[in-house]
Amino acid sequence: MLKQYLQLICVLSLLLWAVFQKSAKGITSVGIEPIIGYERSQLLVPTVHTQDRLVYGARATYGFSFFSAEGEYLRAYSTESFVSQNLITKDTADKLKVGIRSGFNILGILTPYFRAGCQATRNRHEESNSGVNTLINDPVKYHPYGGAGLRLGLGNNLKLTGDLNTVFHSFPDMNQNEYQATVGFVVQFP
Question: What is the residue-wise DSSP string for the chain?
Answer without folding.
Answer: -HHHHHHHHHHHHHHHHHHHHHHTTTT-EEEEEEEEEEEEEEE-SSSSEEEEEEEEEEEEEEE-SSSEEEEEEEEEEEEEEEGGGTEEEEEEEEEEEEEEEEE--BTTTEEEEEEEEEEEEEEEEEEEETTEEEEEEPPPEEEEEEEEEEEEESSSSEEEEEEEEEE-SSTT-GGG-EEEEEEEEEEEE-
